[in-house]
């Protein structure tokens, strides 16, 4: 299978404009268009920011074949029971085109928006370790009861289930051992943004080496789970490595960047849809050329 190219469309557009962006992404041939599942995010906090599930629902009715999804959802403000019901509905509306990107979340605005104290890294890992298996059950079983340390379900019914069988795919974002085990056991894909410690002062070469190490750890987690690591798609969400926006400066720069990561085993590269006057600013003409031509050059 060749390299796939996808995009992240931030949920910052009123739908009159947003519909055109999602449709343009499909016209450009992107494999998938994802959006972030946050209540607000970073420098965009004081501007427009819409909900992920309604945005994806609208995108599902405005597109025909492009895959759609979150990159990523976290337990910070989600509960498996209500999320499962929304995902089953969304999978139905889209005709089976939804991928759930899921991760442990962080310490951003989502972590305190419901009035709670931010969870520690261990608490986030503990919750994700319960969240993912329970969500798996909720999306594959007609009725689920469960009593855990963090989440409960009492005869939660999810008929008729997902259009995609046995359920819609999970793309698990993880770099630590517990998250990698979840990816190996429950994921159809694994997601990384690279090593955040290298973002400010690292080099692209150090980033490639760090990601190679992550993939080696993923391989070990798959062995422990009795799984062939090649059955797990590997997704790189760009924009958070020391390269930052440089891969989008030209078609050649992107093909070189994507080729390096394809050699590591990645099956999908995700780029941010350009947002002027932000960290994701990019020349739209170059961006569209990359969307149209890069995959063919990667072979």
Properties at a glance:
alpha/beta; two-stranded antiparallel sheet; 299 residues; 10 strands; globular; 8-stranded parallel beta barrel
Q: In words, what does this structure look like?
A:
40% of the residues lie in helices and 17% in strands. The protein has 299 residues and is α/β, with parallel strands linked by helices. The chain is globular. 40% of the residues are buried. Helix 1 crosses helix 2 (52-62). It has an 8-stranded parallel β-barrel, surrounded by 6 helices. The chain is built from 8 helices and 10 strands.
Percent range of helical residues? 25-40%
Instruction: Supply Rg.
Output: 18 Å
Structural class, by secondary structure, is alpha/beta
How far is the first residue's CA from the last residue's CA? 9 Å
Rounded average pLDDT: 97
Principal-axes shape call = globular
- By DSSP (H or I, 4+ residues per run), the number of helices equals 8
Q: Return residue spans where pLDDT drops below 50 for at least 5 consecutive residues.
A: none
Portion of residues in beta strands equals 15-25%
Q: Quick one: biggest sheet?
A: 8 strands, parallel, barrel
- The strand count comes to 10
> What's the SSE pattern?
EHEHEHEHEEEHEHEHEH
Major β-sheet strand ordering: 1-2-3-4-7-8-9-10
């Amino acid at each position: 299978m060749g390299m796939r190219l996808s995009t992240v469309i931030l949920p910052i557009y009123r739908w009159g404009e947003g519909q055109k962006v999602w449709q343009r992404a499909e016209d450009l041939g992107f494999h998938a268009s994802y959006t972030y599942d946050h209540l607000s995010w970073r420098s965009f906090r004081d501007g427009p920011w819409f909900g992920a599930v309604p945005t994806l629902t609208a995108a599902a009715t405005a597109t025909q074949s492009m895959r759609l999804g979150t990159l990523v959802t976290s337990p910070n403000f989600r509960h498996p029971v209500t999320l499962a019901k929304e995902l089953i509905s969304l999978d139905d509306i889209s005709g089976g085109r939804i991928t759930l990107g899921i991760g442990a979340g962080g310490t951003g605005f989502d972590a305190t928006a419901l009035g709670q104290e931010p969870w520690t890294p261990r608490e986030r890992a503990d919750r994700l370790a319960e969240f993912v298996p329970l969500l798996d059950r909720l999306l594959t079983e007609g009725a689920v009861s469960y009593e855990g340390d963090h989440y409960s379900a009492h005869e939660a019914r999810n008929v008729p289930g997902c259009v995609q069988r046995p359920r819609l795919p999970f793309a698990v974002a993880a770099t630590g051992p517990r998250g990698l085990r979840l990816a190996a056991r429950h994921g159809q894909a694994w997601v990384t943004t690279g090593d955040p410690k290298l973002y400010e002062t690292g080099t692209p070469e150090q980033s490639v080496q760090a990601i190679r190490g992550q993939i080696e750890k993923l391989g070990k987690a798959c062995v422990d789970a009795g799984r062939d690591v090649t059955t797990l798609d590997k997704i790189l969400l760009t924009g958070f490595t020391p390269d930052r926006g440089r891969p989008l400066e030209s078609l050649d720069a992107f093909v070189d960047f994507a080729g390096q990561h394809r050699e590591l085993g990645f099956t999908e590269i995700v780029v941010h849809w350009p947002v002027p006057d932000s960290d994701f600013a990019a020349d739209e003409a170059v961006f569209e050329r990359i969307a149209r031509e890069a995959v063919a050059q990667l072979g």
